[in-house]
Amino acid sequence: MHSHSVGVRKPVVAVGARACDAEPLAALAAPRRRVRMSRLYAVTNDAKVGTMSDHPNVVAIRRSYEAFASGDLDALRALWTDDVVFHVKGVGDLDGDYVGPDAVLGFLGRLAAETEGSFRLDLHTILADDEHSVALLRQQAERRGRSSDVQVVHVTHMRDGKTCEFWAATTDPVDTVAFWA
After folding, report:
1. Mean per-residue pLDDT for 143-159?
2. Portion of the chain with pLDDT greater than 90, in percent
3. Is residue 48 part of a domain?
4. Count of CB atoms within 10 A of residue 180's CB?
5. Which of 22, 55, 71, 91 is the most exposed place for a label (fewest CB within 10 A)?
6. Can you give the residue range of the structural domain that contains 60?
7. Whole-angstrom Cα distance, residue 159 to residue 137?
8. 110 Cβ contact list (under 8 Å, min separation 6)
């Protein structure tokens, strides 16, 4: 894994598909304390902004969202480890830890059924390093006469180019909990 030391050099940290000087981060570190940062790769769906070289985990996560959108369950399964865990919180009866590809596919099936196929994710950006990825998305769905349209963040732990653990966070937890109640 490539890394930089903050305060020794001026590393560049990717934010979305733009880069910013990380020098202000050095002020957060105590004197003589060295903070290590992983090299971060980012892509965005906006071709006008440009992209950095795609890290293999960026490619894997992008494929996961493409497979999800097209309903390609075999492709999804191939992008997960055999012991994959999805941690799902704030979605009512669907809350839980889903362990293994079969359990995760069962959760996704229930998600589709609960939203009568209206659940959609619009991928904005993927950030990744050798062990993690973060995806910024817009999530839309309809359920029992209600609509939900929220920004979400998906965090994955990666192992050998596959998702082994997944968490989701919403920018509007009150709306999300009410939608799934």
Report:
1. 96
2. 65
3. no
4. 19
5. 71
6. 56-180
7. 22
8. 94
In terms of domains, do 105 and 27 share one? Answer: no
**pLDDT, tens digit, for every residue of 120-140?**
999 999 999 999 999 999 999
How many Cα atoms sit within 13 Å of 60 on the Cβ side? 25
DSSP structural state of residue 30: P
Tell me how far CA of residue 108 lies from CA of 23, 74, 124, 167, 175, in angstroms. Answer: 42, 13, 21, 14, 20
pLDDT digits (tens, 9 = 90+) for 108-122: 999 999 999 999 999
Residue 32 has pLDDT above 80, yes or no: no
Same domain (yes/no): 87, 160? yes
- Long-range Cβ pairs for the range 46-49 (8 Å, 24+): 46/17, 49/16, 49/17, 49/18
d(C-alpha 94, C-alpha 78), whole Å = 23
The residues that bridge with 133 in the sheet, in sequence order, are 128, 156
> What's the whole-model pTM score?
0.72
- Any idea what the CATH number is for the domain that residue 72 is in? 3.10.450.50
Kindly report the number of other CB atoms within 10 A of residue 153's CB atom.
14
